[in-house]
């Protein structure tokens, strides 16, 4: 981070929502518990609800379908893999 943050910050969760990571299942209004001492980041939603959300999840369509940004999105790996091309 640039130094503009203060206090506890969760800055990156992987795998990303676009790839179907657990963060893709979070909905507006869900409670998330963060406990730094226990190294815990927990979504307070039942397992049954998460199963239903996973069944309904669909990968979003790419935002860019042509041009340099589409090429970049196609060739670049996720941030967890270094965001490198290849």
Automatic annotation (TrEMBL):
SUPFAM superfamilies assigned: LeuD/IlvD-like
GO molecular function: dihydroxy-acid dehydratase activity
Annotated Dihydroxy-acid/6-phosphogluconate dehydratase C-terminal domain residues: 1-83
Protein species of origin: marine sediment metagenome
Protein name in the entry: Dihydroxy-acid/6-phosphogluconate dehydratase C-terminal domain-containing protein
Gene Ontology biological process terms in this record: branched-chain amino acid biosynthetic process
Pfam families in the record: ILV_EDD_C
Cited InterPro entries: DHAD_IlvD/Edd, Dihydro-acid_dehy_C, ILV_EDD_C
């Amino acid at each position: 981070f640039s130094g503009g943050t203060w206090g506890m910050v969760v800055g990156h969760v992987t795998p990303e929502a676009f790839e179907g990571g657990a963060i893709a299942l979070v909905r507006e209004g869900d409670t998330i518990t963060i406990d730094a001492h226990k190294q815990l980041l927990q979504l307070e939603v039942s397992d049954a609800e998460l199963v239903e959300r996973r069944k309904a999840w669909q990968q979003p369509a790419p935002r860019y379908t042509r041009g340099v940004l589409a090429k970049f999105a196609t060739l670049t790996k996720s941030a967890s893999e270094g965001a490198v091309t290849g």
